[in-house]
Amino acid sequence: MTSLFSKFEGLASALGSVVAAGGRNPFAVVIEKPLSSTVGIIEGRETLLFGTNNYLGLSQSERAIKAAQTAAATCGVGTTGSRIANGTQSLHRHLERKIADFFKRRDAMVFSTGYQANLGMISALAGKDDYLILDADSHASIYDGSRLSAAQVIRFRHNSPDDLYKRLKRLDAPNSAKLIVVEGIYSMTGNVAPMAEFAAVKRETDAYLMVDEAHSFGVLGENGRGAAEAEGVEADVDFIVGTFSKSLGTVGGYCVSDHPELEFVRLNCRPYMFTASLPPEVIAATGAALEDMIAQPELRRQLMDNAAHLHAGFTGLGLNASKRVSPVIAVTLETVEQAIPMWNRLLELGVYVNLSLPPATPDSRPLLRCSVMATHTTEQIDQALAIFGQAAMECGVPLQPQGA
Amino acid sequence: MSETVESVSALIIQKLLANPKVPRDIDGNCKIMEDLAFDSLAVMNFVMEVEDSLDVSVPLDKLADIRTINDLAACIVDLKNKG
Predict the structure, then answer these.
(1) Is the pTM of this model over 0.90?
(2) What is the per-residue pLDDT across A171-230, written as a single tens digit (0 to 9) for each?
(3) DSSP assignment, residue B38?
(4) Which of A174, A352, B12, B75, by CA, is between 20 and 30 Å from A292?
């Protein structure tokens, strides 16, 4: 009998090597107890959290916790149904209104996860006669959405407006609709999209533009509306998608748009229709976290100050950090043989970051991916930097301090 | 507009050989993922290079049916002829 599992043999052997090289499985870390937004207990030790995407620290928002408690007590802990059947309570509609108002858009759809927001919007919007034009470094949810759609899918070179333009011009399809999909901040590298240039290409080529602001919502722009706001091109963006599971600290996804047809997308969107809606406590907590975010713009300034501090520290140590300062800072190492021991040593010394190994990284080199929080103290960042310096030295990672 | 499967296949092989990790004895019947040990991302990135050399775009869904270098060449010639 052919084994169903033979396809996993390569993976099993790769995972075995990773575990053998470092002593633990980096993909099975358990946070035994979060003590605050920035510290958790891992392997019995207090560990600084520098890899949780909890940019504003709102997973621990008092206002959100109280809202969740009240909603659970008054509405129960689940909706037991789809948004288009029994799964829409007034809480869901209120949150959609709040999100739409925040983005100054006509309407919003709330999905059960950010993954489903991309999966749902891309597959519902792009039909078999349409073209999807994706940034090559797009998140898996964008690729999966494009597979679920019947559209023709074309990739363009990461963050390159010129390459996007060239590929759009190459298409000889005057009767096809074209949807460009980019991200505000790329989750693995922290790269920020050149939104003004993408918007110019969109205008010149009569395409539609979707921006996934998952990592830039609450982070970029005067009001936290993301990369499009930061570059003043929101009017060119047809659809903004995003998640509640980063800057708002809960879970769920959304799409906002001024196109009135969003109402019909609700009825043509499998990842929206065929899954249970978010439970009342999550919806209520998300709305409260959004209020927190709006009421505390200083969180965004603190976040960027902290990101600049960590980035300058990495550069000072001689580590190869992302070029641009953003709350996602990836330290690139040359080899997997360096990255695995260093990630393990960081954890043993009390810092949790994300280990990203090729092929899940853009240029075949491993990354120690860090995400910064507004709630990190200067002392915590300095402590993390000292631990990075120690771990790099102990693991023989070559350092090239600035100016060297 | 005069590309044939043979000429496109030769161009693909030439591009592949520019990568020192690729075995030296490849031909049009080589399977791109299995014989060249390319992962899915490497295949997509390589196809992007070929697209630019030949001024053609290969939609991702077409890649699902492509296993060998000659399959990729045939797909590109087909796309060019349609254009």
Answers:
(1) yes
(2) 988 889 999 999 999 999 999 999 999 999 999 999 999 999 999 999 999 999 999 999
(3) -
(4) A352
For residue B42 the two structure tokens come to: 């490497």
What is B3-80's CATH topology? 1.10.1200
Among A26-30, A385-389, B40-44, the minimum mean pLDDT is found in B40-44
Q: Please name which of A59, A53, A103, A113 lies closest in space to residue A83, comparing C-alpha atoms.
A: A113
> Which residues are within 8 A (CB) of A208 and not within 5 positions of it... i.e. 6 or more apart?
A125, A177, A178, A179, A180, A202, A238, A239
Here the tokens at position A318 are 């001689």
Domain boundaries, chain B: 3-80
Report d(CA A251, CA B56) in Å as an integer.
Answer: 41
Whether B42 contacts chain A with CB within 8 A: yes
B-chain residues near A153 (CB < 8 A): 59-61
DSSP assigned state of B19: S
Query: Could you give the ipTM of this predicted complex?
Result: 0.89
Is the bond leading into A359 cis (omega within 30 degrees of zero)? yes
CB–CB contact A136 B48 (8 Å): yes
Q: With an 8 Å Cβ cutoff, are B55 and A157 in contact?
A: no
Candidates A146, A170, A359; nearest CB to B39: A359
